[in-house]
Amino acid sequence: MIELPLPSLGPDMESGTLLEWRIRPGEHVAKGQVIAVVDTTKAAIDVESWHEGEVLELLAEPGAQIAVG
Fold this sequence. Notes:
Blueprint: E1 15-21, E2 28-29, E3 34-39, E4 44-48, E5 53-54, E6 65-67
Antiparallel strand pairs: 1-3, 1-6, 2-5, 3-4
């Protein structure tokens, strides 16, 4: 199983707020596909998958504050 932690989307970013998922459990994900939208202190940013595979579960709800890493 591959976990996809929140990457740092800026030099001083420590966390972000999950605005929405663009994927669902059971869905196939391609490398480079946008999987979520995260709000940082500066902008809403698309987060892309670094891997290909199937989504087993989503571990955070929209509105959740998520730490980098």
